[in-house]
Design goal:
heterodimer; A: 297 residues; mainly alpha; 2 strands; 2% strand; B: 15 helices
Chain lengths: 297, 281
């Protein structure tokens, strides 16, 4: 009895800092943001008037806000659809290669992971320079003049290239960890039966690491839907703004603009609640779909 | 028979060569942006805009860009703020998560399920939903543009709590039971027996926290104007030198090279830390 009481006490003592922190930093703010999405800050930033569903009506009724937010949602989803599958396929191929008998494995791993330890702000600056229309390395090497970052039809693809380049190393590390858990004798048995390496990949490797592929897909989709840094650094900079901004700005970027440039807390909160719902829906769909393709043993 | 085996061997040899070629091409693609960043940083503005794809080495390596960038922004201070932020975030995260993770894994206490739900909810919610109220709190405390503001959202970590809980759950129970029989109280069991056994996960969490503190852009940009870590400072430098790419690249070099050097020295820990922490989320 005394021991139980003391466990109770110690338990509370140990979780107290974390729980207080989470309530102050996360639980209260979450409720407060949802509450804020039903309010509008008055002129000159004074008062906070209850407006019911007004902000959400603006979101669904078209108009300036509605059109901009839905376009941003489309941009965000399109970006995610480009970045996530490609970065996963490339990372998976690289991980399978490095899992074999490869000389210089450590060196390759170090190189592929390098972008992850560089601040995205610096990455974006470097790519802005590489993609520069007049003097950029890419256009000059290939002798072309593509407006990679200011042509509204191309810019989102360029941002996806930056995203893929940044994240393949991270995905690869996770795949590699999961590949190392696949027992070697499975492959030996398959080799004796005459299965080609490609056949082995599809019938042994892929099913066995499918839980990790699922995990990486879910977390990368969530991260992709939250893209901000590269758009802020590339599209939000310069005088007069980038002509490709409307076709590239993401939901988090317009959240930043509404809330912290225009100080429109109500619309900012509404956009971020919209993002929350979008992420929840997409994740739920993936959770249901996984039953069809993820193998847990 | 012999020729068939020879063919298989030949084709697998060809396959291996192909694998190396692909790995080298990808490595090259990964490295080019870094190389070009460093090379441009040593060029003059004119040189950088007369790019001839076959002459990429600066004619005379010069340090003017670095000097200009350091003149307009105090890099020593930026390093100081960044290091302090990383150290502060890592200590806060590891300390609170090691404690809470142990309680959630091994202690029975009142309200445990509800409290753990709070941890899981935070893990699943996109962090942007917290930002407006977090900003308003910092503002009403009169702490905008301070070190406290930078630290604020990272004082505790749901992710770290979850990670450390998993680590404790993987430890055998008899260790604690033996210690309790020896007369240790729960605090002593935690401190002397259990916490030392999850060191690997603490290191993983520390590395994870450090990388993400260093990469963070949105939050410091919102709360601080003058007291900036490197990532946010780069954003304001870019506003200043819009198209002077040699200077921008010099700033990028100054901001990234220290972290790259640390990474190259401790690369094994970085990779293992990410594999441990990243895969647990």
């Amino acid at each position: 009895m005394a021991r139980r009481k003391s466990a109770n006490l110690w338990g509370w003592l140990f979780v107290l800092p974390t729980i207080i922190g989470l309530i102050v930093l996360n639980i209260y703010p979450m409720i407060r943001t949802i509450w804020q999405s039903f309010h509008r800050v008055g002129d000159f930033g004074l008062g906070n008037e209850f407006v019911g569903m007004d902000n959400y009506e603006r979101l669904f009724a078209g108009g300036i806000f509605g059109a901009e937010i839905w376009q941003a949602a489309a941009n965000t989803i399109f970006y995610t659809l480009l970045e996530v599958p490609l970065s996963i396929v490339i990372a998976l191929i690289l991980a399978v290669f490095l899992n074999g008998k490869i000389r210089g494995r450590t060196t390759f791993r170090v190189i592929f992971f390098l972008p992850m330890i560089v601040a995205p702000a610096a990455v974006a600056m470097v790519w802005r320079w590489l993609f520069n229309t007049e003097f950029g390395l890419i256009n000059n090497v290939f002798g072309i003049r593509v407006s990679w970052l200011s042509n509204p039809n191309i810019a989102l693809f360029s941002l996806a290239i930056i995203g893929i380049w940044s994240v393949i190393g991270y995905n690869m590390i996770l795949f590699l960890a999961s590949l190392q858990d696949v027992p070697r004798d499975y492959y030996e048995a398959a080799s004796i039966d005459g299965a080609s390496p490609i056949r082995q990949f599809f019938s042994i490797t892929l099913p066995l690491i499918s839980p990790m592929i699922f995990f990486v897909t879910v977390t990368r989709v969530i991260a992709g839907l939250q893209i901000f840094d590269s758009i802020f650094m590339i599209m939000g900079m310069g005088t007069g703004g980038n002509p490709a901004l409307p076709r590239t700005q993401s939901l988090v970027y317009i959240f930043y603009r509404y809330a912290f440039i225009n100080r429109n807390w109500g619309m900012g909160a509404t956009v971020v609640v919209f993002l929350l719902v979008l992420i929840a829906l997409v994740t739920a769909v993936q959770m249901i779909a996984q039953k069809k393709w993820v193998h847990y043993n | 028979m012999k020729t068939k085996a020879g063919n298989v061997e030949k084709s697998s040899k060809l396959g291996r060569i192909l694998v190396y070629i692909i790995l080298l091409i990808v490595s090259f693609t990964m490295l080019v942006p870094f190389l070009w960043m460093v090379l441009t940083a040593f060029m003059t503005q004119t040189e950088s805009t007369q790019v001839n794809p076959f002459v990429i080495i600066p004619a005379n390596w010069q340090l003017n860009n670095f000097r200009d960038v350091i003149d307009s922004m105090n890099f020593m201070r930026l390093y100081g703020v960044t290091v302090a932020l990383i150290v502060g975030r890592v200590i806060a995260a590891v300390l609170t998560a090691t404690l809470a993770g142990y309680a959630f894994a091994r202690l029975e206490f009142f309200g445990k399920k509800v409290l753990f739900t709070i941890v899981v909810v935070q893990l699943m919610i996109p962090s942007q939903i917290f930002i407006i109220p977090q900003f308003q709190m910092v503002q009403s405390l009169g702490q905008l543009d301070t070190f406290f503001a930078l630290m604020f959202p990272g004082l505790v970590t749901a992710f770290g709590t979850f990670l450390l809980r998993q680590a404790y759950l993987g430890l055998p129970r008899d260790l604690e039971e033996a210690a309790i029989l020896d007369g240790c109280n729960i605090g002593q069991v935690f401190l002397f027996v259990m916490a030392p056994l999850v060191k690997a996960s603490m290191v993983a969490l520390g590395i994870f926290t450090a990388i993400f503190a260093y990469r963070e852009l949105l939050w410091p940009l919102i709360v601080n104007r003058t007291l900036l870590p490197l990532s946010a400072a780069l954003a304001s430098l870019q506003g200043q030198f819009v198209t002077h790419f040699p200077r921008l690249m010099a700033a990028a070099v100054l901001a990234t090279i220290p972290m790259i050097i640390i990474y190259l020295i401790f690369q094994k820990h970085f990779v293992e830390g990410i594999a441990t922490a990243g895969g647990k989320l």
